[in-house]
Amino acid sequence: MKQTSVNRMVKGAMIAALYVALGVVFAPISFRAVQMRVAEALTLLPVFSPMAIGGLTLGCALTNFYGMVTGTSILGLLDIFFGSLATLVAAWMTWKLRKITWKGLPILSPLPPILVNGVVIGWELMTAMAGGWNFPIFLTNALSVAAGQLVPCYVLGLVLVYWMQKTGLDQKLF
After folding, report:
1. In terms of Cα–Cα distance, which of 115, 109, 136 is closest to 125?
2. Over the stretch 90-143, which tens digit does the pLDDT of each residue have?
3. Closest alpha carbon to 34 in 151, 144, 150, 154
4. Which segment of 24-33, 73-82, 101-110, 150-159 scores lowest on mean pLDDT?
5. What is residue 155's DSSP assignment?
6. Among candidate residues 109, 101, 17, the one with its CA nearest the CA of residue 54
7. Given pLDDT bands bounded at 50, 70 and 90, which one contains residue 4?
């Protein structure tokens, strides 16, 4: 099926909406230094198509906006800008690593969301907590965020990829 611009925009919007919905439903565990943002499982969708990158970035920005306006997130505008930029970079890197597979699964593709978010969100949290550069606080936060990304990306994300491949949903949607 030929992908039109409108078709790609609608699919990107659907990904963004799903990311926001998961972010809102799981808000109590989606923000802070110790977090497990279930919506991050969707960051593996670029293994199927780069069209997912924009939807993920928009979804992350809207979820971070929700966190700011509800007071769920202490990071505010910092997270809307830098957190969304981190998602954009990580999603692009996920797409670039999609061809490195083991038993059909893109085993390196979950690494960018884990590492990029660990560094960027770790920096954001350090800035919010310490007001400036403090390596021990940065390292603690970066490792905490990265650890919280492991389950959504490596477990839920790879299960999502496997399920989409087995059901043929990857071909139907992308």
Report:
1. 136
2. 999 999 999 999 999 999 999 999 999 999 999 999 999 888 899 999 999 999
3. 144
4. 24-33
5. I
6. 17
7. confident
What is the C-alpha separation between 168 and 172, in angstroms, rounded? 7
Token pair of 34 as six digits: 């110790």
Q: Classify the C-alpha dihedral 114-120-121-125 as positive or negative.
A: positive
Q: Contact, 68 vs 79, CB < 8 A?
A: yes
Q: 128 to each of 34, 51, 115, 121, 141, how far by Cα in Å?
A: 15, 33, 20, 10, 11
Dihedral angle, C-alpha 11, 15, 18, 22, nearest 10 °: 170
d(CA 137, CA 16): 31
Q: What tokens were used for 99?
A: 């061809």
The three-state DSSP-derived secondary structure of 53-114 is HHHHHHHHHHHHHHHHHHCCCCCCHHHHHHHHHHHHHHHHHHHHCCCCCECCECCCCCHHHH
Closest CA to 51 of 39, 42, 62, 41: 42
